[in-house]
Amino acid sequence: MKYAYYPGCSLESGSAAYDVSVRAVMQCLGAQLDELDDWNCCGATEYFTQHELVALSVIARNLALVDKQYDQLVAPCAACFLNLKKTDKLMADDPKLKAHVNEALGAGGLSYKPGTVRVRHLLDVLYTDIGENKLRQMTKRPLAGLRIAPYYGCQVVRPLNGFDNTEYPMKMDELFTWLGAEVVDYPVKAHCCGGHMTQISEPQAFELIRRLLQSAQDYKADVIVCICPMCQLNLDAYQSRVNSEFDKSFNLPVLFLTQLVGIALGLDWKKVGIGKEIVSAEPVLRQRLLSGAGA
Amino acid sequence: MSQTNFEPKIVGFLCNWCSYRAADLAGIARITHAPNVRIVRVMCSGRVDPTFVLKALSLGADGVMIAGCHPGECHYVDQNYKAMRRYHLLKHTLHAMGVEPDRVRLVWASAAEGQQLAEAIDGLVADVKKLGPLGWSQNWEENGERLHALEEIINEHAEAMEVHA
Amino acid sequence: MAEKVGVYVCHCGSNIAGKVNVEEVAKWAGENLQDVAVSRDYKFMCSSLGQKMIEDDIRGEGLTRVVVAACSPHLHEKTFRRACTNAGLNPYLLDMTNIREHCSWVHRDMDSATLKAKSLVSAAVSRVKFQEPLEPTYVDVNPATLVIGGGIAGLQATLELADAGYHVYLVERSPSIGGHMAQFDKTFPTLDCSACILTPKMSEAGQHENVTLLTYSEIESVKGSVGNFEVKVRKKARRVDYDACTGCGICIEKCPRKVVDTEFEAGLGFRKAIYTPFPQAVPRVPVIDADSCIWFQRQKCRACEKLCPTDAIKFDQEDETLTLNVGNIILATGWKPFECRDIPQYGYGRLANVYTSLEFERLCNAAGPTNGKIVLRDGKTEPQSVAIIHCVGSRDVRHNEYCSGICCMASLKFGHLVLEKTKANVYSFYIDMRTNQKGYEEFYQRLLEEGMHFVRGKVSEITDAARMPNEQGKLIIQCEDTLMGRQRRIPVDMVVLMGALEPQSDAKEMGLKCGISCSMQGFFTERHPKLDPVATMTDGIFVAGACQGPKDIPASVAQGAAAAARVQGMITKGKVMVEPVVAKINEEACSGCRICNNICPYNAIEYDAERGVSHIITALCKGCGTCVSACPASVISGAHFSDQQIDAEIEGVLWDVIRPKSAVVSAN
C-alpha cells in the first residue's frame, strides 16, 4: 500500500500531533505515505469566498503535483480532503472550468486531468484499506474501558465523501469498536463546530462548541476524537472560554483519530503526540487504560 | 466530407414491446424527428442478430440503431441484456473491420419514452452525418477481395458473437 | 411460383396524406416492386369499405400476400388479419407497415416522408413474400386457480372465485392468512375496526368448500402456460398434524418458551415457540418454530406433545412438496415495510421512543401488546406529545422516489387515535397532504378540527441533544417549516415514522418464476398502467394489491376482485388462443452445443441427451427470438420473424441504396 500524502498547513503547526501520529500509525501498519513534494495550502474555506477560479487553481496545483507512481492522495484534514475532492469533481464535470484551471496551472508548467488522482480521507484508508482484520490483529493495547465520542464534523460528511453515510456517519464508531473502545453514539457527531466563527462572532461560535461538548458529556464520553484540525482546535482551545461563558466545567480532552489508534497499536504515547493538547488527556487515559490493566 | 446534403440511411431495429411503442408514442405526440431511420420491427432486441447489423451496413446503410426495453423491463424477462452483450462485441468487430463503431447505437426506450427515442434518433442521425457516408458497398466493388475478407472476419468471430447465458 | 402481393396505402384522411404523397407511393409500389399485383390507396383503409376492398381483391385477383401501409400494427393489425381470414387468406400472410406514427406524424418535409414511406412499403413487400401461413393453437383452460398471498387482495380474489363456483388454491407464506391488515387496529377514513371486517372474510376462506388453504407454504416453481400451469408448492413442516389438531390452544398455553414476536407484533410483543400469529388466525393450527423450540435446541421439554389431547404434535414432520394444476394464477404477494434504520438521522433503533408505523399499529390495537394503550417504551408513561413523520423512505431520491400513497391517511388515523386515547399534542410533519379518495379529504378536515398540528416540511433530524431547558429528556424534531419559512425545533415524547411501502424482497425472484417483470422499483409490471392494470405480459398471470404498487385497502380489494373477474372470464371462455409466433429447431441440423438452452428465459428449450439435440417446448416459448439469433449453426427458426423474413426486410428498406445482390454479405 503506497499513497501520496498531503498533510496540509495545520498539521505543520498547531496540529502537529495529528501529523506525527498519522505517520507513526501508518508506518506501524505497513502503509507507505510519501509526502507530496512542494505542496501548498488548500486555501480552506476562505479562498472560495474571494475568487473561485483562484481557489480551485491553488487546490488543483496539489493534484497536479502528484507523481505518476501514485494513484491515491491521502489527506488527514477534513477540509483539505473536501477541497481536493471537490476540485477534482468540479473539473471533471465542467470542461470549461478544467480548461481555465489548466491554463492557470500551465503558467507553472503543470496540468491536471481530473480523475487521475483518487483523493482519500485518512479515515477511509484506515477503515477500508487497512480494514477490520488487520486492525484487530495489530491491536496491542485494546482501548477497553475508554468511552470515546467520535466527532466527524461537517466537512467529511459532504455528499461526495464516498465512504460513509452523509447524514449519520458510523465508520469511526465501527473502527473504535474494533480497537476495543466503548463508543459513544451521541447525536451531534456530524454537527458543525463553527469553523472560523470564533474570529467573527464569539457568542455564536461558543454556542456551537458548547452544544458539542454538552452532548458528549451527556453521553458520558471520556474523550472526543477528531478528524479535522479545525474541530480539534475549537473544542480543545476554546473549552475553557466556553466554560466561563456558560458557567460550565467541561473537562473533555480532544484528540485526533490517529493518536488513539496509535495508543491501541502499542505506540509510545509521546510518539503520537499525547501531551500537545490543551485539555490534558493523560489523566483520563491513565485512569482508563492503565489502572485496571496492571501497567 | 464535402457533401453538405448528405442524408444518411439508417436502419432501426426496434423491439415490439417498448421501443416500437415509443416510436408510436412519438407519433401520437407529434414529436418531430429526423426521417432517416427506417424501422424494422423485431419481437425483442435479443432477436437482433449482429449479422443483421452487418448486413444492413454492407447493403449501403450508413448507420444502425438497435432499441429495446430498459434493463430490468424486458418483456422477455432479460433478453435485452443479451442484446447489450452482443452489442459490445459487435462494436469491437466493427472496429476491427475499420467501421466507426459510433455508426451503430443501442438505445433503451420504454413505451413511455417517445421524446427520448426521438432525441436518440436525432442524435444518431447528427452523429452519422458528421461521420459522413459509410460507402462500404462501393469500397468492395473496387476490390472484391474485401468482401471475402469481411466474410472471413465474420466467420472468425462467429463464436465470439454468441452470448452464453 | 411467384406470389401475388396486394399493397394498400391508407390516407387516414389527411393524417397520412397530409405529409406523404400517398397516391405516388401506391403507384410507385405497383410499378417498381416485384410481385405486386395490385396497389391501391384509399381514404380510410380500416373502414368497412377499405376492408372490403382488400377482401374483394384477395378473392378476385387471387392475392396470396397483403401489405397494408397505414397506422401502427398495434392499432389495426387485428382488423386487417380478420379481413384476410374473411376472404380465406391465412392472417399471417399479412404485413402491416406503419407510415403514420413512424412517418407522416413525425416528419415535416413531404419529400423525405414520402421517400421513407416508400422504403417501409418496399420492406413490407419484400418481407411478406417469405411469410408463412401459421395456425394459432387453442388450449383448454383448467378452471382451478392459484392465488399467491393471503392478504386482503388475495382473500378478496379467492372468495370471488370460490363463490362463483371455481376451485381456488390459496397459498400463504406465513402460518395464517390475513396479511398486514390483520395487524391494524382501525382503518381509515371510517375508523371501522380492521379485525371486525377482515376476520369474517378469513374464516369464510378457511371454511369454503371451493378453497384449498395452503398456509406456511412457498411457491417453488411455476411451469406451463395460460390454461395449464403446473405449480410446485413447498408446505413447510408445521410439526403439527393439520388434520388432528383441533386448535384448542393448550400447547401454546403450556409452551415454556417465550420469544420476541418480530413479525405479527413487530417486535413489541411476545409469542411462544409453538404459536399461531394471532388469536383469530386461520387456520387455527399452530406451528412450531424450530429455531426457538427447546426440544429442537436442547432435546428437552416436549410439553406440547405430552399435553396435546389429540396427539397432533409431530416433531419429525418434514417439508412436503405438492404439485398443483391450475389454469390461472393471481399474484397478491403484498408489500414489506421500509427499513427505517436506513435513515439513521431519524434515530430508529437508537432512540427508544421512535416507532415504525407497524409498531404503532400494534400499540394502538386493543389486542396488541399494550392492550391498545399508547405508552412509551417503558410500558407505562403516556406521551404528552407525539410527532408523526411522513414520507420516510418515500418521495426521497436516496431511497424510493415514489409516493407510498397510504401514509398521509394512516398518519391522520394515528393522529385521531392519539387524540382519542391520550391528552397528547400531535404533530404531523408532511411534504404534501395527499387525501384524494372518497371520504379522505373530509377526514383530513376532521383532524384539523380535532386539533392535530400540521407542519409542512421535511424533518432533517430527530435528536435527543437538548439545547433548551424545555427540550431536556425529549426527542427534538428539527425541521424547516416551509409555510413559516423558518427552522423549527419541536420537542416531543414519541415519534412515529411512516415508512415507505416497498416491494417484497423476493418479488423479482417470484416474477422470474412466473415469467413476469418488475418495474425499476421492484413492483410487478401490469400489462397496461391504465387500460389493463390487473393482467401482466404473461397470459394467465394476474396481479392484485400492493405487489403491483403501493395501495390502500379499498384499492387492494378492488384489484383483487378485478383479477378474479378476469380469471372468471378466462374460465368461462374455456379455451385460450396461443400465438403461433414461436421458435423451432431443425433437430437434424442441431449439433447439440446447448448454447440456446440457457439463453431462454422461459426454460422452453430442452436438451435431449440421448439424441444429442435440443428441442423447443412450443407451449412455453413466447417467441422473443433470442435463441434464433444465438444459434451458431442457424438451425433455429422463428416463426413470423425468421432470418429470411428479416433479411428480406433489411434489403427492402434499403431499396434506394442497394447494390447487386451477388456481392452482399448474407446474414446466416
Task: List its traits.
heterotrimer; A: 295 residues; alpha/beta; Glutathione S-transferase Yfyf (Class Pi), Chain A, domain 2; Rossmann fold; four-stranded parallel beta sheet; 13 helices; B: 165 residues; 4 strands; flat
Give a topology summary.
The complex is a heterotrimer of chains A (295), B (165) and C (668).
Chain A: E1 2-5, H1 16-28, E2 32-35, H2 46-50, H3 52-65, E3 72-75, H4 78-93, H5 95-106, E4 118-121, H6 122-138, E5 147-151, H7 171-178, E6 182-183, H8 197-200, H9 202-218, E7 223-226, H10 229-237, H11 239-246, E8 254-256, H12 257-264, H13 282-290
Chain B: E1 10-15, H1 19-28, E2 37-42, H2 50-59, E3 63-68, H3 79-97, E4 104-108, H4 114-131, H5 136-142, H6 144-157
Helix pairs in contact in B: 1-4, 5-6
Chain C: E1 5-10, H1 22-32, E2 36-42, H2 48-61, E3 65-70, H3 73-86, E4 94-98, H4 100-104, H5 110-128, E5 137-140, E6 145-148, H6 152-163, E7 168-171, E8 186-187, E9 192-193, H7 194-207, E10 211-214, E11 217-225, E12 228-235, H8 250-254, E13 258-261, E14 269-272, E15 274-275, E16 287-288, H9 294-298, H10 303-307, E17 320-326, E18 328-331, E19 335-337, E20 354-356, H11 357-364, E21 385-392, H12 407-421, E22 425-430, H13 440-450, E23 453-456, E24 459-463, E25 475-481, E26 486-492, E27 494-499, E28 501-503, H14 507-514, E29 541-543, H15 553-573, E30 575-578, E31 583-585, H16 595-599, E32 605-608, E33 613-616, H17 626-630, E34 636-638, H18 643-653
Parallel strand pairs in C: 1-2, 1-3, 3-4, 6-7, 6-18, 7-10, 18-29, 20-27, 21-22, 21-27, 22-23
Antiparallel strand pairs in C: 5-30, 8-9, 11-12, 12-17, 13-14, 15-16, 19-28, 24-25, 25-26, 31-34, 32-33
Helix pairs in contact in C: 1-5, 2-3, 5-18, 6-7, 6-15, 12-13
Structure commentary:
The complex is a heterotrimer of chains A (295), B (165) and C (668). In chain A, helix 1 links the parallel strand 1 and strand 2. Chain A contains 13 helices and 8 strands. The model of chain A has no long low-confidence stretch (mean pLDDT 94). Chain A has 295 residues and is an alpha/beta fold. Chain A folds into 2 domains: 120 residues, Glutathione S-transferase Yfyf (Class Pi), Chain A, domain 2, CATH 1.20.1050.140; 144 residues, Rossmann fold. Chain B has a single domain, classed as Rossmann fold (3-Layer(aba) Sandwich). Chain C contains 18 helices and 34 strands. In chain C, strand 6, helix 6 and strand 7 form a beta-alpha-beta unit. Chain C starts with a strand and ends in a 15-residue tail after the last helix. Chains in contact: A-C, B-C. The interface between A and C is small, with 12 and 10 residues.
